Amino acid sequence: MVQLHEMILRDAHQSMLATRMRTEDMLPIADKLDAVGFFSLEVWGGATFDVSIRYLNQDPWERIRLLKKAMPNTPLQMLERAMNIVAYWNFPDDVVKKFIYLAKKNGVDHFRIFDALNDIRNMEIPMKAARENGGHVQACLSYTISPVHTVEYFIDKFKELEKIGADSLCIKDMAGMISPQRVYDIVKGVKEAGIKLPINLHSHCTSGMTGMAYQRAAEAGIDILDTAMSPISGGTAAPATESVVAAFQNTPWDTKYDLELLIEIRKYFLKIWDKYRHLHRFNALKVDPSVTVHQVPGGMLSNLIFQLEEQGAPGKYREILDETARVREELGYPPLVTPSSQVVGVQAVMNVLHGRYKVITKETKDYCKGMYGKPPATIKPEIMKKVLGPKWKDEVIDCRPSDLIKPMWDAKKRELQEMDGGSLIKKEEDIMTYILFPQVGLKFLKGEAKAEFTSEQLPLPVDHPLTRGMVKQSFPEYKAIWLETVPPEDRAGPAQIPTEFEVEVDGEPYEVKVIPSGGFLVAGAGAASSQAKPKDVEGGVKSNMQGTILSLKVKKGDKVKKGDVIATIEAMKMEQEVKSETEGEVKSIFIKEGDSISCGDLIMQIL
Ligand code: CO
Fold first, then answer.
1. How many angstroms separate the alpha carbon of residue 236 from the centre of ligand 1?
2. Which of 195, 329, 353, 394 is deepest in the core (most CB within 10 A)?
């Protein structure tokens, strides 16, 4: 018999609805979900914590409490990012332990724990804490394809995880790229190596091979498969629950779940799918087998290409693809999942735009120092030198990254107590919300967060051309959705955009810190304003990137020479210069400082 782990309340809407499903969308169907008999139901963690407080004005702690009350018979699971918890950076041990304690207390039964780099040192503390609090520990390995990620690699790591106290194991194929033969070999290998723990496969339909992979996994003896109810399945989400149940009927892997009950649940989630139709993206539903050729997840790639196009560098598909693969290899083949996918992806974009390792993000430096953990393969000295400088050896740490972080709980608790006369702390969990997301969490605790709209609340139909622009004006934070054209695994909002860079000017490195201004990727506004001015004029100077006009360096009537800087644009959080390509006089200026501008928009006329 195979059991299913149902993901409709977490991974499914994170993959296809930008994580926007709300507590009130979940509760009415909870009793039916609870009656199916799933191995477990994933309902919490990943990006759901961040999105609840950032976009929905909902308390994630309340959500898990209510869900546990409504589903007492099914183990509820959370996805936990090892020392990152549910955020994107490392926390000290005391915070991780406290978080696990509070999560268990509020209703989490199963803890699926993973580390992006499969550095087991990062997984030990949360695993131990989950066990000590009476939780089930599901230890995960992030799946990727590389010369170091052999079948033996997975077997050896799983053996280690078994030894340090896992209750079950999971292959986390977050990019949906595992092939039928590959999963067969790993599962068979794990079973033959004498590992007794149940083994779970987590995957997404992206490559189009996943149904076949599930069949082969079953043949190799998989114990648990991850699925999602059909209305939010397929594409970048998981295979449909009902389909897998039907496919295994009357086979040795029969789940014995009630298909009629599942079809009832299906009807309910069709309505929820429709409630968020402004978030539907056709591309997220398409099969993208390109990952099988270059091992870069489709979602991540389309996001990078989108960013490059916005920067006025379209048609760079091949280049960005090659560069991402190359940077990944140079950085020791990290699995491409948050946060390593951002490290590799943004560095690849920087390399394509500015030359290889000419602009190095703070994140790349931290990664090479070992601040995320140990990369799967050794990084070559020449790359370390490029990233960290000639004395790179002094910068590298060999301890567990969180060993360098001081305990934080007590200090943060005092800090919050001293604000607003201590009125912000209604319960211990509020301190945790504040520690995990200092700015967004504080706004939420102060009652300043507001719930985002649903499709019904939009003044015009979703497919109306003006909808994007109107949505943007009413809800400035909506721009974060455009960032997620196809949502990569475990991604929520703009937190991953690096803000600190090292820029090389004439061979001298400079540290640059950019303060976010919020004028980033505003598709609606850019399109609307471009209609108000001429498309083309004689002597027109056009923007070759998407961004915000920071400054105009000339005024009407000024004489300019070729190569003079006439304006600066903030794009991708960096300042870029616009230079005149001709000599002449500024006849008219079509934009003003602070305007959002799209690629190809007219800036001024020089004749
Ligand atoms: Co996933």
1. 9
2. 353
